[in-house]
Amino acid sequence: MSMQLRKLCGALALALACAPAFAADAPKVGSPFPALDGFSLEGKVPDTKGKVVIVDFWASWCGPCVKSLPAFKELHEKFADKGLVIIAVSVDEEKAAMDTFLKKTPVPFAVVRDAEEKLQKRIDLSGVPVTYILDRQGVIRVIHDGYAGDDTKKEYLAQVEALLK
Questions:
Q1: pLDDT above 80: residue 11
Q2: Are 131 and 55 spatial neighbours (Cβ–Cβ below 8 Å)?
Q3: Fold of 29-164
Q4: Which of the following is catalytic: 26, 45, 62, 143?
Q5: pTM given for the model
Q6: Domain extents for the chain?
Q7: Is 29 in contact with 133 (CB distance < 8 Å)?
Q8: Which one from 65, 84, 128, 140 is the annotated catalytic residue?
């Protein structure tokens, strides 16, 4: 085997060995969600201490993300005064795209943008929408990957109600 091929194989083996370690560090059900104030997010992060929290990663160009917004609006209207906080984390590359979308489709809950992609990298985000539901101690209780309409909406409702009890 040539020296060049050995170096390439060695680099590939190192990359493959490191990839699972990074993914293993990603937050999972049962682990605490990272503190949002450590990620230079654009926008105001609301106080979440002692609250049930939904952290939803979305983008203005994502069809399922857009379809999930009415479900989050309903949850906000029903449970905000009972201790639910919803934070929509935009992964839009351009702030203008997010702002234009929100002007046409305003939401009553907090929206921030992960412009530097630090939070996305920390949680190993590979696509949107992804929704984390956290208990009052900030521990991840549910992770929803994608949005399947009414079925997912019913799951959100049941999960939030259970955590608010």
A1: no
A2: yes
A3: Glutaredoxin (3.40.30)
A4: 62
A5: 0.85
A6: 29-164
A7: no
A8: 65
